[in-house]
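TEACHING EXERCISE
Course module: macromolecular assemblies
Task: Read the component lines below, then compare them to the predicted structure of the full complex.
Student: A.B.
Group: 4
Components provided:
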Amino acid sequence: MKGFILKRLVLMGITIFGLSVIVFAISRIAPGDPAKLAAGPDATEEMVQVIRKEYGLDRPLVVQYGLYMKGLLNGDFGRSIRTRHQVWEDIKNFLPATFELVFVSIGFSILFGILFGVSSAVYRDKWIDHVVRFFSVTGVAVPMFWMGIMLQLLFAAKMHWLPIGGRLDTMVHPPAFITRFFLIDSLVTGNWVAFKNALAHIFLPAFVLSFPALASITRINRAEMLEVLHRDFVMNEKAQGISNRIIIFKYALKNALIPTLTMIGLRYGWMLGGTILVETVFDWPGIGYYAVAAAVYSDFQPVMAVTIILGLNFMIANLLVDVGYGFLDPRVRYE
Amino acid sequence: MTNSTLQNNSSAWSRWAEEHESQIRSMKLTFYTLSRSPLSVIGFVIVALFLIVALIGPLIITHPEDVKGSVHMDLKLRAPGSAFPFGTDDMGMDIYSRVIIGTRLSLQIGLIIVFVAMGIGIPLGIIAGYMGGWVSEVIMRITDIFLSIPGLLLALAIVGVLGPGIKNAMIALSLVWWPGYVRLVQGKTLSLREESFVEAAKSIGASKLRIVFSHILPNCTSPILVKASMDMGMAILFAANLGFIGVGAQPPEPEWGAMISVGRNYLPDRWWMATFPGLAILLTVLGFNLLGDGLRDVLDPQSRS
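Instructor-supplied answer key:
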């Protein structure tokens, strides 16, 4: 198992290197002179020259890449052209909101995806199966941002059941900063007002963000469960009089989880991309919202930083998925 | 036309039919199997409708001047009614006409992205699968790196550098889309390389090019077709995503995502502005997904997952 994880870590190192090269390359395909862009529209030729020197833009590309990497390793993601803020400082402020949203969403879709998948497979062709299949087919096709707007319209604007956007009402004091996840911080400090308010705010965005993932996890889990439930060993266990619950959850589900895990990893990546949309719809103050605000003005440093951070996060998730395989299927470890 | 040429024609036809009997039979089987699954039929009907609307769009719209953008302040923000079935927007433009013409734009977007992605991905996939060695290693590593960045994010990064607009959005999405095809084709080529008919072709001295074009590529068509059908829907959805967040198509371009982005500012009272373009996206993506699913069940039953 140790060697297996080590091998994955080395592969991840290569991929991280590749990610940085791609992002660096993208930032250099910018039409026009990056030094001029950074200097702003009113800059004189001398100012542009100074910036060119300062950023090393007059050096060979390889050297430029080295400088860029050195900056990244020191947490220097450059400055926003528009606000002149240090990008890393901004990211630190926006990151917890994104992770809170994404973690709640992936947890929700894994839990209910497996639950729906199993019940759909066990009650095959009963009404519950039909309902679940309908949602798993349409769920992937629904445009996330549109679904968000429609739910906002229904539950926030018309019925006033849930807030329309944001993380907390302006009247509510944010809980003490511990993990910066409002749900956890307010729970730990016993701040029930903030907890209820944060929960009401995260409900719609998390539901929307988890919907496509929920649909595809359900779908693949159902298909795998159906297949596993027809294998000989299940028949054998039934013959031995093992209870259905134990067969389903202990033996069948563990086998069905391997392909499901692949889907979870894949969908987690989609979710990191989708958070851009959901944060925009619900004014959720995360890095997706931050990246969009910057991209609209071609302010590319923040967008690059967000790409690197979310890409890194996706790679870590993939690593965890790989380790999960090793855990679920011992054969994988010895390949 | 004389009798003899007619006969000639029909015999040529019957000869062709005889020569291609197996293909014709498998085509018939495909249609039969497809028609047995209600969801695939729904998908097929939606996609056919989408194509028809894209084709005859200009004939069935009521306000052609609104397609590229116009201003009628006296007509703005009308609710759906007999004159404007989907209502009008903030500039007084007919939303029905714009949604209909949006079909054409979406078809264009989908086709361009998918074809560019295939044009890059398929050759690289075949090279990686057939050549092996360090060339394959390099191609697959680069592919993996691209696949490890969430697609929408990478597209946003590219558009962030190139600047907003429909053309740049399409460039960005094409650059994001090809790795999936490399993966697919490489995997398929690897397994085909070991097949006995490829071995046989090699043993009688067929050139590499010949093997690739007459043995490997034709056997890759089914999975590629399935993926392309699914991707048509997804590419349209992603372009709408970019349009919605403001870096794709810019209003007054009749692109569905951009229309929703404008309509969003007039919620909750003017619900129709965001609702109808959204339904159009939903239906289109659903149609291509169902069709792709159905095609997979028929053409490529092993890879069902």
